[in-house]
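Team,

Forwarding the record for the chain on the shared tracking sheet. I've put the sequence and predicted structure together so nobody has to dig through attachments.
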Amino acid sequence: MVALIAVGLIWWRHRDLYLAGDKGPPNRARSYGSGRYVSDIRLGWCNNDGKVIAHNFFTDSLSVTVFLQNFDGWLLAQGHNEPRLLPSDLNSEELKRYDSLRDLQHASTKLAQEQELQLQALQSKINHWIIQERSNLRLMIAGHVFATIPPFDATAPPTYGTGEFDGETYNRVVFHLEAPKDPDELETWRSIIRAVGTDCGAQISVARPIAGRTDALRMPSLVNADAIYGVGAMSIQRRFPLVPPMRQAAAAIAVIFTVAAIVSAAVGTRALREDGRGCGLAKGEEPPWSLARVVFAWWITICVGSFAYLWALMGEHRNILSKTVPLLLGIQGTTMVISAGFARSQAARVSQVFSMISFPSEANRKFLVFRCSYGTSC
């Protein structure tokens, strides 16, 4: 019942993630007027219209779809400023020539046949470059660029705006929200979770890392933006979990069942008591508690709880617990086995209170008090 209540509370908090329904088309604004190119973000693997293509309630990493406005215009502008962004088959002079031919075309000037052929050849290179560059984008959360988290879907053809949005192009890229494998980025991921929690409300955008640059090319965003410029530009406040809620539910269930198993073993069985086999004990009498077994159960509960908590919050399972944890459990397990052997050779004793260890003689009890009085490990 406790586990069901915990899962129910987690589901209720994130119920909007699991309830089916069309949230409508992605946000659109005049990117030329606003200077913002990331227009919207949706949870799930969505198509260009914002409808979810595939959704798994029990996935270990949620998907997030980032919608881009006028990505080609942004890329062309960045190509003029950063030559390292250009592909090997396209140089700066060709890019300038392409812009001049497009300007002539937009001015309703009839191009010569040679110019038409040049424009078609350059347009083919530009289109191929734009398609490839969508795969080179990386997710940016709270101003941090995660270079080791590439999009898993960046192949959808762009759509084109009509009416008020005539001349605008719309693209989308889809990422998995999973903890990065790079140690530095993993620490950044953890710092964001510590700062804003598992439900991220920070500014979301994408960036294009370039080898040799100290910083990536960051794409301005309408999502969680601080300032919006231009008519029709609207800030989109999207909250999404960096850790799937179902993972949090699984961690809560693991902790609850571990604690329940330990308590059940202590209350309903003799699993945490000395192995007296009931010999020499009257009906209704119980053997005393075993220090080794209680400590071993205590360490099991601590390790399971710590792992589940960090796994649920940080979203990754590598190097969460210290390497000394198996050593501690091994020592406690060995102690439990040895103490069980000694317990069989002793006469059965009755448990009076929750005393995990008892000494057969008064001298031993005085020795324990003497050792603890001087700060020595008992």
